[in-house]
Amino acid sequence: MQQGRDIRRVGDGLNEKCGVVGVSLGEREAARPLYYSLYALQHRGQESAGIVTHDGFQQHSHVEMGLVGDVFDEDSLSTLRGTAGIGHVRYPTAGGVNSCCAQPFAVSFKSGSLGLAHNGNLVNADEIRSELEDLGHAFTSNGDTEVIAHDLARNLLEADLVRAVKRTMERIHGSYALTISHDDTVLGVRDPEGNRPLCIGKLDDGYVIASESAAIDTLDGELVRDVRPGELVVLENDGSGFDSYQLVDKENAAHCFFEHVYFSRPDSVIDGTLVYEVRRNLGRALWEESGVETDVVMPVPDSGRAFATGYAEAAGETTADGEQRAEDDDGVEFAEGLMKNRYVGRTFIMPTQDERERAVRLKLNPIRSTVEGKTVTLIDDSIVRGTTSTQLVQLLRDAGAEEVHMRIGAPPIVAPCYMGIDMHTREELIAADRSVAEVRDEIGADSLGYLSIDSIADCLQKSQADLCLGCVTGEYPYDIDGETTDRDVTRPAIGAEAPADD
Amino acid sequence: MQQGRDIRRVGDGLNEKCGVVGVSLGEREAARPLYYSLYALQHRGQESAGIVTHDGFQQHSHVEMGLVGDVFDEDSLSTLRGTAGIGHVRYPTAGGVNSCCAQPFAVSFKSGSLGLAHNGNLVNADEIRSELEDLGHAFTSNGDTEVIAHDLARNLLEADLVRAVKRTMERIHGSYALTISHDDTVLGVRDPEGNRPLCIGKLDDGYVIASESAAIDTLDGELVRDVRPGELVVLENDGSGFDSYQLVDKENAAHCFFEHVYFSRPDSVIDGTLVYEVRRNLGRALWEESGVETDVVMPVPDSGRAFATGYAEAAGETTADGEQRAEDDDGVEFAEGLMKNRYVGRTFIMPTQDERERAVRLKLNPIRSTVEGKTVTLIDDSIVRGTTSTQLVQLLRDAGAEEVHMRIGAPPIVAPCYMGIDMHTREELIAADRSVAEVRDEIGADSLGYLSIDSIADCLQKSQADLCLGCVTGEYPYDIDGETTDRDVTRPAIGAEAPADD
Amino acid sequence: MQQGRDIRRVGDGLNEKCGVVGVSLGEREAARPLYYSLYALQHRGQESAGIVTHDGFQQHSHVEMGLVGDVFDEDSLSTLRGTAGIGHVRYPTAGGVNSCCAQPFAVSFKSGSLGLAHNGNLVNADEIRSELEDLGHAFTSNGDTEVIAHDLARNLLEADLVRAVKRTMERIHGSYALTISHDDTVLGVRDPEGNRPLCIGKLDDGYVIASESAAIDTLDGELVRDVRPGELVVLENDGSGFDSYQLVDKENAAHCFFEHVYFSRPDSVIDGTLVYEVRRNLGRALWEESGVETDVVMPVPDSGRAFATGYAEAAGETTADGEQRAEDDDGVEFAEGLMKNRYVGRTFIMPTQDERERAVRLKLNPIRSTVEGKTVTLIDDSIVRGTTSTQLVQLLRDAGAEEVHMRIGAPPIVAPCYMGIDMHTREELIAADRSVAEVRDEIGADSLGYLSIDSIADCLQKSQADLCLGCVTGEYPYDIDGETTDRDVTRPAIGAEAPADD
Amino acid sequence: MQQGRDIRRVGDGLNEKCGVVGVSLGEREAARPLYYSLYALQHRGQESAGIVTHDGFQQHSHVEMGLVGDVFDEDSLSTLRGTAGIGHVRYPTAGGVNSCCAQPFAVSFKSGSLGLAHNGNLVNADEIRSELEDLGHAFTSNGDTEVIAHDLARNLLEADLVRAVKRTMERIHGSYALTISHDDTVLGVRDPEGNRPLCIGKLDDGYVIASESAAIDTLDGELVRDVRPGELVVLENDGSGFDSYQLVDKENAAHCFFEHVYFSRPDSVIDGTLVYEVRRNLGRALWEESGVETDVVMPVPDSGRAFATGYAEAAGETTADGEQRAEDDDGVEFAEGLMKNRYVGRTFIMPTQDERERAVRLKLNPIRSTVEGKTVTLIDDSIVRGTTSTQLVQLLRDAGAEEVHMRIGAPPIVAPCYMGIDMHTREELIAADRSVAEVRDEIGADSLGYLSIDSIADCLQKSQADLCLGCVTGEYPYDIDGETTDRDVTRPAIGAEAPADD
């Protein structure tokens, strides 16, 4: 049943929005550094957390549903013995909490033990799984990670570590940033397209591999470099260094631009660029492409803040028409006009039907004096479903805004992400079947401006050919049933704007 | 490393002290009957509980650490859809809480899904695991159950269900009572020695397979019969009946006598005899073998109660010398002399060193008037380490007992149980290297009497050749490294008594 | 509104079914002995637990909802500094969990601090509360205990401790067993009728006052004697002894007979008699009054066990007609015919409507071989609502019992208890408006026998005039609105039996 | 004991850092609006939360330790019946969690029921408590709130509501913003100095009184005005309006300036000024008073953000010397240079000694590219102990900052706050006995600038005579033992700066 396959592929067992880490220290126990790293990566997944270590003789594992701070305590950390290990945090997927897929996934096999922490999504997991089932393998979960683990274990029967990883990499297709522990050896692997981020850091007494450089900072380490697409990195057991093996080469990468726009921490350096800088530059480009002169520009906190800072900066230099500002023209004022209540958490009791409109004000409250009687530009990173944008526009109007203009630091999202990021079906996407003007009307803004794909590529300092732009073009760098691949096509520039007078 | 193997085999992944159940109903959802069954089997395991069901299309699983009442709620039961399923409760092993081994173990493989709930311990799990690892299999746990699941899944690639089970049974050795779900078909399998109990029950609208008949009672069902050693029972999907396949035949069974002495519920019928009746008869035999005339006889609650009832009954009929009681001789008075505090639970804060002696009085308090100035016989089911016995003898002396005689409803435990029951090493066993007189002195009793092996066999209505008596003879019905097998030897009768004047 | 007042008086703020303790040690910290005592008294209340101590300078308090083992941990015990203190456990009342009334109740006032732990119920709390409100007092709860605390605090403004307690005792009417801490002085007070139990124990290094002697046993102490009705006991601060003040004298006591029948631990000595002995003797009397010759006699576990033991003993000596047994007549066999599942706890998911009948079998399962084809006598301590009795009779019939006869170790409960014990309204009581024959028919038994009030008094070794028999006579030793007082009337003997051929 | 009194006064029972709310609706249940209000006020207290309502017949209360989201669920809200009620959130005080003082405090007394929610601290609570104790009152807590409740209840015996409140206000001295429920009438009271904020809001169907206007926004209401110092506001039962009574008049107010600097939400309007505006203006003034030309200016997130925005704005207009910027001089660049990890919560496992320095990087991570090789100005709202400032300066230096200049949006804190705000003793305050230059050296900054008191008053648009400036002057608007009162003195201007070349 084709439909069923589709649903499973994009619903079950996805690990795209996860954080992974691996640590190898010469002398020091790995558990606490892994624990602090996972704290630094907590934004990449709040559903489950886990650590697997190896003490030279035995593998130790502690994986549970919940936040890092709830999953681990002094007792559990103390049982995770050994100077080498890996860790994982996992994002709640649309399909709900799914304990089956908490990671790292740990197995023992003929040649020892394996631990795998996976960020990404395979597009041919079903095929490989099916091949392994034909050979008698039985699986405890629907997850891609178990498929990789079984395949790797099987290859390790007949090949050394590097060749076994190479064989597995040649079989699996899709996105994967992996940290792997083979007994007490820690590995990092990044898929040939480099879709998900992975980087290497140097500590005083060892090395670390992590999804984001912020995890390295947390350990007081130094970012060495990103793991290259198609590269295998093997940390030395004594913490003295690492070996690199370029196992698979592809002409083009397919870095996910959404990591920079939304998913990664602003203080992380991803594929050579600082996320905060990128967002600020995206904000500058947004002004240049579709700036609108209003009394005030304000971010949606916290996601729009870096964009809005850049936008306002650029607005201080040139006018919306691209002219140099006159000396006495202060440009657009930057202000925080929406205050975020940081205490509204999971246990919140939802308002009844007639209290529904109040719900958004519990989370975000407008500062009336910043808004009242003014024309306002609201900056956010992206629009997915559009519900929040609609509520915020209304909120600002209720607070007395004369006009509300919306500017978005990314292109319209028109197609699902098969690599993750919680944008699963076209039905959910407000821009999938609407023009920019229609989206503008739907959310009730006076004008709406998205950023162009060209600017995305420019600000990320990448060629469009080296980015995965599937969600904004509908053309994917992977073969996905029923979707177009972009590997052979020339991409049009999509970025668009719906002015107030549309 | 021989030592290492021994430790692993008897320490990790044991499932001997567990409860299993399987249910197939024509129309009704299986989850709630499974839930109630697990409540009825909770005494067989308090570490974890789990249920696996299958709704004809998909397998559903909910397995967690904790008591049945904590693991399941209305929500989790409602997700366990389907009219067929299996359940499991697991005992905390000596090595501490072990989340890896919570069951049922669920996998999917080429031909569908498998769920396994296992009570028992294989003696050749390492060998089979090793063979499977040679074929590329990777294992997520140290447990025997996963080994059985992988072996069965592999056999199912090439054979139908009955032949696949037969092949697996021919490969695995040791004790196993299994409930298995293969998609929505529920199976029960008992090892060729029938070491662990398993029985079949009939409900109004289906059939149930369970470790003990008390689980059947809970569902208002009727006990049909025990599953026979070496038998496979396959429940009909529509709840209309079951098919039986006698897959392996052995000359002798090796039923665990300790199930009757301690482990099973008194209200269960195990291998044709009611546990309560057996215990009462063991008590009667105990009087006949080693009765002592004292003012009062009292049980250790609750484990010694049925034994003490039988002992006192017999004591009312004949004297300790075996003579008919005189008309005016009331014999030994039965009384509850120790009161149990049922609220002392897991969270109890242990007393400091100098409060230590008070600890036992929190759990068991002597009734002074029953004890003071009297000669007392205390009845328990067995002595393992001897610490509790020592404390109780002292407690009764402190309460004013003139004499304290101890009588035990089982022979001295002189050797480890490799099939389970938490008696792992000879060092822990007070009787392993002590004569009965030495044990008597160690626990401080005036006299000590154990029951003979002959009486065990008589009361269980079994031939000694059909019992596993390893823990009381040191000779085992299985090949265990470093231990003697009893399959070829004639067993001596061991039952013994250390009179007060020894 | 008169009705409202009645409801409040018997519904809110009742403390009858509670346990209290007080400890004064010369040198040792009081917190841990108080903690162990509360464990020993846990059967008297599972809703909340609390300890108040005083270290000579300051009062410390820890009171929470929950079981003793959940309320306290090492941390909380360590903050409860001081060698003197009191403790309390509270029973869930019919009206549901009520955090307002968790105790001990602690206040500070002009002359220092007061802690009160109360077991009992005042009949004039409203009046005294009203008088105190006229003087400006404000109350944080509906509880009697706060009323006593305020009254005592007020009296302490003008009188020394002993006289202040006397004044308060002269004002309050009803049942109260109190432990009180006035700064670091610990007191015990028992109401002039001695309705609720309270006793004094001697430890190696101090003294203890507790609801039941079992708490003293737990601390390895010796029972000195009961606190006398109307007596105040003041423990010496240095643990060297206690002073006694007989503050109020009444001609007659009004001891609650139900403490012996049901509420107290079997191993406690209450008002001079061991509860286990009393229950056994009540069982003997029950045979003598209403014995019926059946194949087997069995207790409802655990409440009926001591009664059944005595009943069976007596049945071994004489026939139901009171004749000496013939030599070859073994009388009625004693057996455990119902097995209790000790794991069915609070979190149990209730069965659906059509599974309802199975619910009782989860808790109590009949042993078929003991029951099948036999005439059975089932012994319990009392019948309140009758629902459990009805279910058990049916259970035994379903298990094949030829006849089921019920014998009860107390008289019919025909009226509410205003002093506690969860028998609040006549509507709930099966015997309130039914003859014994009607109750027999209602529960479906072949015959039903209650014990007479005369036997109650005899076995408790008390005059009926010194007992509170309100719940079995409808005449109370206290003035209760709308009820008859028994202080001036002669009580009829009620004990009754409904034979099978009624 | 004078010392003891001092300690108690500033340690126990303080309610200064709390949030209060009261709601009276004509028809709608009050519980949910109170619940959402408390969410909006959660920043004012995370230790406990509570709601008291009255349904016309009976008072209902639910108060527990914990966050609003954990304390309440659908069940508890549904028991809080009635259209009128009050709520409270409480801050964890230095002395640790203190369940005794969770609020609202609820009592019943002669004339009905009272509920009190208190934000503030009385300076003569001991005296009034002592007077009430002389009259026989007993207290369950050390809290001021219970003292107010008892005093008010006593006054209500002899006076109507308004006069009773007036009498109590004439007796109590100190800071108090109160919401009170007298049966189903809701009141708001603010102390004569208006030390703590309290305001009135209008809803569609009723009125609300709350600590901050953000709570009114959350309910979609409109801010009517602040409650005036010395005013009593009584909400109509039917939600139609409110009555005002100016009960006490003082020449000067003593508004806490720290509410604007740190404690209140930026989106709240307090005493006529929007907190966000005030902070931004304080930032502007900070530039004007002690601006330093550096490459970049960055806030300590989130507390310094509004200050830094204003500071950078002003820096774009004039130079540090107060000159108009040259056309080609962009001034100081504003950037986010420290990223906050919002997931580091309470359960965080503290690093070991040698990991200590890494701890701060878990919470705040520098963005290297923003900092490296640059001169940096770091903006925060205030410095209390100085430990965080020291760590942040070091963090920025480690990240490569050439210079680190610190600018603070408030004057040096030199004296304890007896009205709250967690600045209890001079020993804890880094500026109490240090010059600005010494503080600069202590925290390791290149220069340090505080704001002047004059600017505080200017930006709050208040006379200094109407502010409480005790913590920055050491002179208090209340009579506090051992401290100077400022009511008769002329205050010096303190604001100060320690330049780099000091």
UniProtKB/TrEMBL annotation, chains A, B, C, D:
Instruction: Report the co-factor binding details.
Output: Binds 1 Mg(2+) ion per subunit. Binds 1 [4Fe-4S] cluster per subunit.
Q: Which reaction does it catalyse?
A: 5-phospho-beta-D-ribosylamine + L-glutamate + diphosphate = 5-phospho-alpha-D-ribose 1-diphosphate + L-glutamine + H2O
Coiled coil stretches, renumbered: none
Entry binding sites for [4Fe-4S] cluster:
C256, C417, C468, C471
**Active-site residue numbers:** C18 (nucleophile)
Query: EC number(s) for this protein?
Result: 2.4.2.14
Record: residues binding Mg(2+): S303, D380, D381
> Belongs to which family?
In the C-terminal section; belongs to the purine/pyrimidine phosphoribosyltransferase family.
> Which purpose does this protein serve, as stated in its record?
Catalyzes the formation of phosphoribosylamine from phosphoribosylpyrophosphate (PRPP) and glutamine.
* Name of this protein: Amidophosphoribosyltransferase
The species is Haloprofundus marisrubri
Gene name per UniProt: purF
